[in-house]
């Protein structure tokens, strides 16, 4: 009975954390729309090769161009984020930070001069890369199963790392994905820890 309560408590904490993040993103977008005339991205987005644009590495994941942009990121952020969080909130935080920094820095270095980059999609691609490659680095049956599941459900988004449109920050996607791969390598657990693979 205690184990069941512990599992329910853990799941509740995970869901609350993710919903809290998504609520924050929506609150920021509503505030930008109501109070700032959709100008926050211009001031706080990533502006490649600009010293002042470096601040965007910290702020860009919380900003979106419009509600449609945010809506497109919300579902994968929740689903992939929760799959990452099954390993614990500390690991989810670590993966989120690593992927956001890699995505932002890569965009700042390789993005087009004069462009502005925003959105949580770099973190989404980071989650995707982490979950996809974790099975390779850990070689546990559970990790491999999750890698296959993520490949089946979200494999199609891999094309988002290609420069298919000037309106899409493929640099953020690409370096977010690579950040996820880096996180999978850095956070890979030794074989003896596989039994503690999840917080459930």
Automatic annotation (TrEMBL):
InterPro entries: Peptidase_S54_rhomboid_dom, Rhomboid-like_sf, Rhomboid_protease_S54
Chain segments annotated as transmembrane: 7-28, 67-85, 92-111, 117-137, 144-162, 168-188
Single GO biological process annotation from the record: proteolysis
Keywords tagged on the record: Hydrolase, Membrane, Protease, Transmembrane, Transmembrane helix
Domain Peptidase S54 rhomboid stretches: 54-188
Superkingdom, taxonomy of origin: Bacteria
UniProt subcellular location: Membrane
GO cellular component: membrane
Membrane topology: Multi-pass membrane protein
A GO molecular function held by the record: serine-type endopeptidase activity
Main location: membrane
Protein's name according to its UniProt entry: Rhomboid family intramembrane serine protease
Lineage, broadest ranks: Bacteria, Bacillati, Cyanobacteriota, Cyanophyceae, Leptolyngbyales
């Amino acid at each position: 009975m205690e184990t069941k309560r512990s599992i329910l408590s853990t799941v509740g904490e995970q869901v609350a954390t993710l919903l809290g993040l998504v609520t924050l993103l929506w609150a920021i977008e509503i505030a930008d729309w109501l109070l700032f005339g959709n100008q926050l991205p211009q001031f706080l987005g990533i502006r490649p090769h600009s010293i002042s644009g470096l601040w965007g590495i910290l702020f860009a994941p919380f900003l979106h161009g419009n509600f449609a942009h945010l809506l497109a990121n919300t579902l994968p952020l929740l689903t992939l984020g929760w799959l990452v969080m099954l390993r614990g909130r500390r690991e989810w935080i670590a993966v989120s930070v690593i992927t956001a920094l890699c995505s932002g820095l890569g965009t700042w270095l390789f993005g087009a001069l004069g462009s502005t980059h925003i959105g949580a999609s770099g973190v989404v691609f980071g989650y995707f890369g982490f979950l996809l490659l974790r099975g390779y680095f850990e070689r546990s049956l559970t990790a491999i199963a999750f890698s296959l599941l993520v490949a089946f459900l979200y494999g199609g988004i891999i094309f988002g790392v290609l420069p298919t449109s000037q309106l899409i920050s493929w640099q953020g996607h690409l370096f977010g994905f690579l950040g996820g791969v880096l996180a999978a390598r850095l956070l890979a657990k030794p074989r003896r820890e596989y039994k503690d693979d999840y917080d459930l």
